[in-house]
Amino acid sequence: MTTETVRISFHQLQETLQRILQKKGFSPERAGLSARLFAETTRDGIYSHGVNRFPRFLEYLDKAYVDPSAEPQPVSSMGALERWDGQQGPGNLNAWTCMERTIALARQHGMGGVALRNTNHWMRGGTYGWQAADAGCIGICFTNTIPNLPPWGGKEPRLGNNPLVIAIPRDGGHIVLDTAMSLYSYGKMEVARQEGKLLPYEGGFDNGGNLTRDPSEILKTERPLPIGYWKGAGLSLALDLMAAVLSEGLGTAGIGELGTEYRVSQVFICVDVSSPAHFGLRQSLVQSALDFIHSSAPAGGDEKIFYPGEKTLRTRQENQTQGVPVELKLWQSLQQLVTD
Amino acid sequence: MTTETVRISFHQLQETLQRILQKKGFSPERAGLSARLFAETTRDGIYSHGVNRFPRFLEYLDKAYVDPSAEPQPVSSMGALERWDGQQGPGNLNAWTCMERTIALARQHGMGGVALRNTNHWMRGGTYGWQAADAGCIGICFTNTIPNLPPWGGKEPRLGNNPLVIAIPRDGGHIVLDTAMSLYSYGKMEVARQEGKLLPYEGGFDNGGNLTRDPSEILKTERPLPIGYWKGAGLSLALDLMAAVLSEGLGTAGIGELGTEYRVSQVFICVDVSSPAHFGLRQSLVQSALDFIHSSAPAGGDEKIFYPGEKTLRTRQENQTQGVPVELKLWQSLQQLVTD
After folding, report:
1. Residue B251 falls within a domain, yes or no?
2. Mean per-residue pLDDT, B89-98
């Protein structure tokens, strides 16, 4: 981060966010959980979706896109699979509740799923992957979004940059993949633009339809490059359709008609691998895969070999010890909100 | 295809393959199904994994990597989720059986899953997506492979180019995504090399560690580009771990130790969306998503906007009418095998 930052203890950061949310109408318990998830996201180094996103979350509360007291409700059930309605409640609390329910379904049926409609942005998707893995479950979840990615062969946004999360429990730190459908997020491109830097790899199309590393060009055309080009575009459509169909909620097309990203649809899937009697996970098998990738000769560039979640764990430990970095101006404004 | 091809009726093609498989020890019923899946794959235009792959399949039978009479056996069950052992039987028959079982579990529990170990290459992964969608199910399946993709930041193969399949039923033709983890398959790169063509986009690294469009360079370094670079590499690891952990079978690392790709691990997941009473799929919702992507202004290049499965359907119809294209030399050698 290039702007001036201060390091705040995790406890102080969470408490500050919690007090603000209570002033916005959250119950103490729900304010505490939501604040913890925001603070953990920043602590884990996912700065774009943690405290930096908190002001926009407050704005959505003020505009009534998000109802602070709404809780998700079960709509229908078919054994291992349930449909829930998020009632436009806070996205991170809704997602947390539905992943908890998914874990319970997996305990009961071996695997379980919840499809959630009428919810809001879940902030960091990886949160619910860590949640599932902490509970001894393989967790898969995904959300749809407002249209912000063109289909392959098109130049207007018709797909969502839908994050896909896959988490696998591991004693020494879970494997948690949290990947959106574009190579670079809008947040990452915005940061690069502000710093006057080119992207490390071509990340989208310029006005002439050519691939470019210039983030300002891509932010203008709104044509970020899907992962695997036509493949990521196809995966985005598949995730959107599954989320909308299973929840009977809005698809990306429908969210686009709202003009603002709310009332999104999500899916949570878990497999219980905590029980040695059934599908218990062999830690040695996971470790051998990680040892195997780390045994490759380095490619020789700047990139090191990491498994998904490995960098997160390092950043978490550093920020836990040294304090969570928060932009000074943001921190000051948060403190102002507490005392207002 | 550049080599001389003949168009064979689907029926004649299937019958020819079936007769060869019966001579190799397949029961008539199993020979018929396996032959149908090979023939359908070529009919659908996935030439690399259809009849073109049949000689290598026969070779694996001769080398006893594949046991023609072995059938998958259930190992353990936990409600909606089951573990099966493929007994090193033919990969396409094993996968078909396990997707059938997954569909049955989804009918019973809303969603269901089967993890399969000790199986063999399933040929076209999309086959089992079409199978699930034909049964009114959303289907997800994936397989691991021998190491043939480097981890991001590394230059030696440590990951599998694990295909991921997602299928969503649709009245006018299913949405079936069938995507490996590299931008271009080894098969596609080999074809481009033979034709002396550059790849449309950078598809891997050359000897100097630079991205290149030259397929012969990538075939030499064995460094194809994962979809979304570090993202596809992470997704590959996650799919491999899920397949190996849930089946208690071999991971990519373990398959690598065998030296030849057999005894792979796979996962099949279905959600039953055929029943209006429960999670019935609203066709209008699916159609609106397809209409939405097709409504984008074209990007202006050679690429048209397709949903996953759209091109397959066109090719299928064309090949069904005109006959399935098979390389003349291959067709002659297959006929020889029948009469030998």
Report:
1. no
2. 98
Tell whether A253 and A116 lie within a shared domain: yes
**8 Å CB contact of A150 and B296:** yes
Q: Parallel, antiparallel, or unpaired for β B81-85 and B73-78?
A: antiparallel
Residues A336, A264, single domain; the answer is no
**Lowest model confidence (mean pLDDT) among A279-283, B15-19, B224-228:** A279-283
Residues B109-137 pLDDT 10s: 999 999 999 999 999 999 999 999 999 99
Does the beta-carbon distance from A166 to B245 stay under 8 Å?
no
**Set of chain B residues whose Cβ sits within 8 Å of the Cβ of A77:** 110
CATH number at residue A212: 3.30.60.50
| Nearest Cβ partner for B285 among A79, A245, A282 | A245
Average pLDDT estimate for B2-26: 95
A139 lies in the same domain as A253: yes
Smallest CA–CA distance, residue A284 to chain B, in Å, is: 10
Range of the domain at A238: 69-182+226-281
- Residue of A75, A138, A158, A174 best to disrupt the B interface, most CBs of B under 10 A: A158
By Cβ distance, the residue of B76, B238, B286 closest to A168 is B238
Note whether B80 contacts A83, CB cutoff 8 Å: no
Count Cβ–Cβ pairs < 8 Å, chain A vs chain B. 292
Of B151, B179, B299, the CB nearest to A209: B299
- CATH number at A324 reads 1.10.1530.10
Query: Which residue in chain A is spatially nearest to B282 when comparing CA positions?
Result: A245
Collect all residues of chain B within an 8 Å Cβ-Cβ radius of residue A298.
Answer: 153-155
Whether residues A183 and B229 touch (CB distance < 8 A) is answered with yes
pLDDT along chain A (340 residues), means of 10: 86 98 97 98 95 96 96 96 98 98 97 98 98 98 97 95 97 96 91 93 93 96 95 98 97 96 97 85 94 94 92 97 97 95
- Say which of A109, A209, A303 has its CB closest to residue B153: A303
Number of domains in chain B: 1
Distance CA B273, CA B102 (A): 13
Residue A258 belongs to a domain with what CATH number? 3.30.1370.60
Write the pLDDT tens digit of every residue in A83-130: 999 999 999 999 999 999 999 999 999 999 999 999 999 999 999 999
